[in-house]
Amino acid sequence: MDLQESAENYLETIFILRNRIGAVRSVDIVNELDFTRPSVSVAMKKLRESGHINVDSDGYITLTEIGQKVAEEIYERHSLLSGFLIALGVDKTTAAEDACRIEHIISKQSFEKIQDFVQKEFEKK
Amino acid sequence: MDLQESAENYLETIFILRNRIGAVRSVDIVNELDFTRPSVSVAMKKLRESGHINVDSDGYITLTEIGQKVAEEIYERHSLLSGFLIALGVDKTTAAEDACRIEHIISKQSFEKIQDFVQKEFEKK
DNA sequence: GTGGTAAGTTAGTGTTGACTAACCGAAGAT
DNA sequence: ATCTTCGGTTAGTCAACACTAACTTACCAC
Lengths: 125, 125
What we know:
The structure is a homodimer.
Chain A: H1 5-21, E1 24-25, H2 26-33, H3 37-49, E2 53-55, E3 60-63, H4 65-88, H5 92-102, H6 108-124
Antiparallel strand pairs in A: 1-3, 2-3
The first copy, chain A, binds a DNA duplex through residues 4-6, 25-27, 30, 35-45, 59.
């Protein structure tokens, strides 16, 4: 069973926030994604129950091993896709937005082919 | 108000089917998309009410001017995106599937930049 | 005309994933 | 000590979009 698109997105956001600000609470995700506290709260409950995150008694969120793996995978896709779009001349904001949507729906195969392509382009230069 | 992703998809399918088989009925869309008759029926009702299609007394579906415009736009995106992916080495089926998802969510800007890129690549050869 | 099949419709259901309203506990400020 | 604010939770709602069940109509065969 594949992970839901929204779940992937939450995990990625937790990953990004941890790298940016260190410790991550629900409210940080609320601010980052512009969702409401209840929405994030419910989502965190599901991620807890599915074993993707741990939440300590102070509300601090950490990724489990599985959660970390998913988050990194999505983040890698995000970086590659937005980098690719930026290289084509798309502005940073739009590239990030588009990458954020595409990263969840693109097939492994297409992702890898884009990866190959980007690598080749870099080597060329 | 932007058109729903599913609506875009239905319009594109009608466009494709008309080019392939001439006249299009609900059941043709059912077969093409592997949805159920009720699902398509309800979707067609909405597209009728929103002025994107006309349905004659025999159940034959045609695109209105607006519907045609949307359908062509999406189809153009689809062609470009799947062509691009295929050029990168993605197999036809996967490329079509991915294009079908990406075409609805990508920004105008990114689409245009990919278009520029593809054009440049063609010129090169 | 009775029966079968094809095509469309209506009504109701389930899932995903957001929302608001309202409540609770902890921590600071006065 | 009370009051506010912050962060989190629960419960209920809503929209999109598919589904099944069941009805209708028309047409074809015999």
